[in-house]
Every structure is written in structure tokens, then in C-alpha cells.
Predict the 3D structure of the following.
Amino acid sequence: MNAVDRSPIQVEDLVKRFGSFVAVDHLSFRIERGEIVGFLGPNGAGKSTTIRMLCGLLRPSAGRAMVAGFDVSRDPEKVKTQIGYMSQKFSLYPDLTVMENLRFFGGIYHVSRDVLPERIASAVSMAGLAGREDALVATLAGGWKQRLALGCAILHRPPILFLDEPTSGVDPQSRRRFWDLIHSFAADGVTVLVSTHYMDEAEYCNRIALIDRGRLLQFANPGTLRRQPLGGDLLLLECDPLGAGLAALRSAPDAIDAALFGSSIHVLVRDAAASMSALPAHLARSGVRIERIARIEPTIEDVFVRMVGADLAGGHGQS
């Protein structure tokens, strides 16, 4: 890193240890102005720990990170003035009203009294809470709570937003509206780092960081990730019964891997044409009837499952 580098978020060999456990394992990446980057990975992958370090809330064990031009280890308080942060757990005060929460966070962020009324009105409108300013936050539905929390996080108009699993437990319609808001901020030049374990949300990001057990597996745009070679052809199977079908597929001679995807199975095979001919008979011997079989293009979830499996096989994970 050097003084002329203007990337809002720059990370080099970032490490976080808790005793002998390595939660974040030499992460390196950078995020540009107005970019939405998704941290995608299972629970325990190190997403929240990384975000807390970038927010100046945790001190790195090794490596370096610069946020808005400030070193997160040397100037954590200066970092905090330049960011908005939504934690993984709901961060507002449930026993206060909508308006009381907004006024409180306006004070925390030192928002000028001259602009605070306009900022509060904007947050209320964004959250869809006009007419409910006096409602206790505890009485609000999940989607409203999350949009209100986002409104509180941006009262001071920060150039960088860190959102830690902001849509966890929120219904699909509210999730879509939340992402519309994120894109509107990015269009105004705000840099957004958002963690999620919802694979479909990755499609809303400009780039995706696939993370597992503290390690960065890939950092690329969604299209590039979907084109990652999986080492074979991907088939979709709908069969009955589903569980027996999955077990039978995992023992099929040509199968490399198989995993449930909703009410179907994605199976990675060495040769699609040969497997489409051979699999019906193989499954029939286990009492499984194939209702549909087709070759498909990989999804980001397919790529992630395959990469995590390869990482496990290579023995690179933390205990």
C-alpha cells in the first residue's frame, strides 16, 4: 500500500487469532469507490471477524488494513468517523421509539442540528415508517427494523458501509427492498461491504469474496465465478425418493460429487452424455425413479460447494 492508492478499503495479509485458533487467515483484497462487494460464506467463515477489524472494533493479529485512508490498527477512532456499520445482531434499542432511536444515533454520530431533521425524515421515508415515528421498535416487523437500522447507520452520510448479514431472518420481499437501497447508495459513490450466507444475494454484488474458515477462496464478479471449472459436467436430477437418490448418486461410478438443491439434486459427473444414459439404471437398482435429468450451468452455490469441498480435501482448514 502507498499514499497515492485511493481505494477506500485495502487489505493486505490480514490475520486474526484467538489463542491458537486462526479466525482470519491472511486475507488480501481491495474494494473501490461505489463498489458493492459481498462476503459469501457459511457461519464461522470469518466474515464478521473481518468486518469488525475493518471497522476498528478488533485489532488485527497481523497484516494491515486501510479504510478511508486510515490504518485500522493505528487510527481506529478516525476509521469509525468514516463508516456506517450494521452488526449481525439487531443493533437498535427495542424499548425506544423509531424517532428516539434516530435522535440517539444522530447524537452518537455528531450530526449537526441544522441537518438532523432532514436526515431523520429521509431515514423514516427509506424505512417505510412514515406515520409510525412514535412506535416502539420492538413492535416493528423484521424488514422495517433492518431498514431503520440502515437509516441510523447512514445518518452521518459515511462514504463506506459495512453490513454484517443485514438480511438474516428477513422475508424475501424485504430482502429485495433492502438490496434496492444498497444499490442506491452505491450509485451515489458509497462503498459497500456486505456479508451474507444467502447465495442468491451474491448476484446483487459487483464482486464476491468467497470465504471459508478464514481463507479467501475466490474474489471475482458473479459471472466469472459461475464460469469457474468444476472438474466435470453438472446435471440436475429430480427423483423419488430424494434421500435415497442422493445416496445412490454418491456411489455412482461416474459421479464426482452430489448435493441437494431444494427439491432436486445437483450432481457433478465426468461426462454428461454417458451419465444421463447410465444413471437411470443405477438409481433404479436402489429403488429410485428419475423424474427429470438435464445438464445445467453452474450457479454460484455450485462453485462455492465445490471449492469448499476441495479446500477440505486439501486439509487447509483450521481445527
Remarks:
- The first strand starts at residue 9 and ends at 18.
- The first helix runs from residue 47 to 54.
- DSSP finds ten helices and 14 strands in the chain.
